[in-house]
Hints:
A: mainly beta, 6-stranded mixed beta sheet, 5-stranded antiparallel beta sheet, B: about 110 residues, mainly beta, 11 strands
Amino acid sequence: DQQVKQNSPSLSVQEGRISILNCDYTNSMFDYFLWYKKYPAEGPTFLISISSIKDKNEDGRFTVFLNKSAKHLSLHIVPSQPGDSAVYFCAASDWSNYQLIWGAGTKLIIKP
Amino acid sequence: SQTIHQWPATLVQPVGSPLSLECTVEGTSNPNLYWYRQAAGRGLQLLFYSVGIGQISSEVPQNLSASRPQDRQFILSSKKLLLSDSGFYLCAWRRGNEQFFGPGTRLTVL
Lengths: 112, 110
């Protein structure tokens, strides 16, 4: 039973345009959501997060939106740059069980 | 500042051989520690986590085991590797709502 789903395995975006990565969750008890970025052969690095009491969090080119009623969050990257090409993981906190619940990841490819 | 180390970076092992991967964290005490595996083209699979010395919780039954002999040391082991154990192994520690990852170990079982 996947509690966090990233339904797009890959996404290709033109350099300079907006990249939108989507994530859905099923457990309404999740209260904190995170996005991580991962390059091949490296550990994931924390990118941006959002608490369930907010609907938007912005950090430079990165913005995360949370729609609690739809149990949906998205990561917007504007403008997209070649260095943004990576796998992006969505995660939700389930700290009652000491864990983050992870999506399967979306591979973002930025085309020049 | 906190840092997390993993070694070795890469490892090639024959089927049936033992395994020991080590992870250490610096700059923090009593961290929650985690072992993940990422198979080729797949997401992150949580294998084990530990909330303290000698305390190990297993998420997926398999031929791997974990131990936490010291506060900031987390070890992943196997007595006999299988081909399906190949993958990218990641250690992580938790601070607040976030997890921070080590550089990973690429394990190839032949």
